[in-house]
Amino acid sequence: MSTVKKAIITDAGFASRYLPITKTIPKAMVPIGAKPVMQLCVEECVAAGIEEIIIVATPGTMAREIYENYFHDKASNVEALLEKQGKAKRFEPVKEVLDFPKITVIEQDANLPYGNGSPILSAKEYVKDEEAFAVLYSDDLIFGGSDVKTLIDTYEKNPEAKAVIAVQEMPEEVWHKYGMVALKENGTLSHIVEKPEKPEDSPSDLTSYGRYLLTPEVFDYLAPANTGLDGELWTVDAITKLAETGDVLVARSEGKWMTTGDPKNYFMALLEYVFDETDYAKDALEMCYNKAKENNI
After folding, report:
1. Most CB atoms closer than 10 Å: which of 47, 170, 260, 265?
2. What's the CA gap between 278 and 210, in Å, rounded?
3. Is the pTM of this model over 0.90?
């Protein structure tokens, strides 16, 4: 039995790059095929054997109600209508959602500083007594694998670790966009260089993104008083502090990481899903080919 039973999935920003759609729905509810981004994150957790998921939603919006409705409402009226129409099979994907392990939806504590560490800190009471827990940023999707499973497997082989972070090799031309990983001589994490201005400023070709396995010790450093760059509360700052006191392991992703943090990258992730996971991939490829030919690309 796995010792890691809980995961936190964060979606607590206002997603201004997605306006106007995110005025009404949280960003992680935009669809990838027929499923929202958030569901793909949940499925990654399920594939890793996670038993409880805490979704952290943006405060002061309808996000919490939207997630509660999506994951918990039985939609009995829809099921009854489809049965009446002889289309009951179309309701099967809804039943799959309703059969997910326990999903608890909370709002980020509005009193915490801005930053990607605040949603995790908001869920502290749900995970503080766990041996370890997974954290997923819903901006990030993994295709062809479960980073959560990779993180858990790595931790269970090395239970003395303070944390485990997922990494992926990335080409030099994008290093300036991401957090680049510096390693100690023993191959564990030293620190993360955020968005290096020049390639020579990057300590490696390994990019860190929103997949972590943390121990509750992280809350010794992930605290409101410990803001960093731009006055924000950063998860990587707390992880770097953990690396000063023990080993933070670095696990290479066995899948393909893609971000959905902005409309362009979201579209690229959508294409990845369409090409790899749907029965209309051939039609989509043909359309792309014809469009490229039409525009002499």
Report:
1. 260
2. 26
3. yes
